[in-house]
Amino acid sequence: MCDFHSILGVAIGDKYEIRHEPGNSHSETADKLRNLPNRKAVIFEAEWNGEGELPSDSKLIRNIGECPDRLVKKIRDHYIKLKEALATGKHLSDYFSDTKKYSDVWNKAIAIANGVPVVLPKVFHGNLYVDGSAKLDALTEVGGDLSVYGELNAPKLQRK
Known about the structure:
- By secondary structure, the chain is an alpha/beta fold.
- The protein has four helices and seven strands, in the order E-E-H-E-H-H-H-E-E-E-E.
- Strand 1 and strand 2 form a beta hairpin.
- The longest helix has 20 residues.
- The protein is elongated, with a radius of gyration of 17 Å.
- The model has no long low-confidence stretch (mean pLDDT 84).
């Protein structure tokens, strides 16, 4: 298990994609790859916490020498969006909109919000962790676990 934020860059033929699971486990993510006839998935593990300067390709991606250039670009673009999401809230409502898949990103953005506008959707499908205080006006439902260590102000959230 990796700390934060682990992805797989996956090459299947000439198709390239990013895979991620909120637990940040490369093996958990790889286990969910579907085997396609006559196609072998080649995976490249990558991880970075979104803090500071984006690392070089060789520090960001394991086996960088074998990773296709188009996939390297896709991985770098993903991590640029991660950094922007954590720093400004940008990309949370579009690129990282799947609150179950990217609950780790949302939770970190909330934790470090220091003036960053983090607007949760009405329904948060993943696990939500609040450490400190958070004002989540629109939130009506949490699909996973809700853990609060501090103060949560969510006037529309109902207990079921």
